[in-house]
Amino acid sequence: DEEQQKRVTTLVKMMESMRDKQAASILNEAEDAVALEVLMRMNVAKAGKALAKMNPTRAAFFAEKMGAPPLTTEVP
Q: With left for phi above 0 and alpha for psi between -120 and 50, is residue 17 left, alpha or beta?
């Protein structure tokens, strides 16, 4: 919903304002769905730097999810 989108947008801005290591530490511990949403909405360069500082297994998980095709089979 709209309120949830506002909260995610605020979280994205906070993560982008942090140092890479700080953002990575938080995203490492966040729920998968939340961390993935934030990473996908972050500036590409900043998301990449945060991924580079994350636990490699977790970073690979998020990279795979971000590169995966959409889950829906609807035709646009």
A: alpha
Give the integer Cα–Cα distance in Å for 12 and 42: 6
CA dist., res. 30 & res. 34, Å (int) = 7
Q: What is the pLDDT, as a whole number, of residue 73?
A: 55
> Any idea how long the chain is?
76
CA distance 6 to 40: 15
If we measure between CA atoms, which residue out of 75, 26, 74 comes closest to residue 50? 26
- The whole-number average pLDDT for the span 56-67 is 92
Q: Which distant-in-sequence residues (6+ apart) come within 8 Å of 4 by Cβ?
A: none
One-letter amino acid for residue 32 of the chain: D
Contacts for 63 with CB less than 8 Å, ≥ 6 apart? 51
